[in-house]
Amino acid sequence: MGFSERVERLKAKRDVGALIRILKYGGLRLKLERDLRRSEAARALAELRSAAAVEPLIRTLASERFFVRASAARALGEIGDRRALAPLLAMVEDGGHSVRTEVGLALARLGDSRGFELLVLLLGRWGDPERICAAVALGELGDPRAVAHLMRVLGTSDEFMGSMAERVLIERGWKTREEIEQAKRGEPCIHDVRFANELCHDCGAPLGQCTSCDAWFHMYPSGNSPTCL
What we know:
Strand 3 (216-218) and strand 4 form a beta hairpin. A four-stranded antiparallel β-sheet has the order 1-2-3-4. The longest helix is centred in the N-terminal third of the chain and has 18 residues, at 31-48. The protein has helices at 3-12, 16-25, 31-48, 54-60, 66-79, 85-89, 99-109, 113-123, 130-141, 146-151, 159-171, 177-185, and strands at residues 193-199, 206-210, 216-218, 227-228. The protein is elongated and about 60 Å long. The chain is 55% helix and 7% strand. 41% of the residues are buried. By secondary structure, the chain is α+β, with helices and mostly antiparallel strands.
């Protein structure tokens, strides 16, 4: 029996104790394989949402492997026990790939506004590969406040990021493909635009935001013909 099959069987039996033992020790294997097993156990415990797994998962946040820390953070967010708040907040500067994203998502799921703020911050960090993970996480979270932030990414020089934001907006049902294509073509918006006191990351021009559809615009000094981002 393969290890993944064993985990599925333990999950089906709701054998939280056995999964916690794997989370702690991973088995007598090579170090990398052991940690991969620990990460898989954390994902299984997340699905079972057992309160008994909270403390072991909190201890797992100290793992030297970024993917183990990320899996533990996600699991704590999905279990939803507020005992995890303080340990997660201590990790907001974790430099491991995708760890901050999982921490932000977990905090938001636990009802802490700093989680959403962290995801938005990561989304706006140009050149940081974690901003892709942040876009996906905002989609998973399902908070409609993310629409305005995702719309800002459309039409910028980061084409891959724009494609990911577009995918999230459409899959969540926040925007139609037609609305996004209109924004990408630079067609003037028919709605009122308010100044947003923010500057474009690409060219430094002042930005405005639509009061209805949340699209973002370059606002030129003349105030005429704003261009959709």
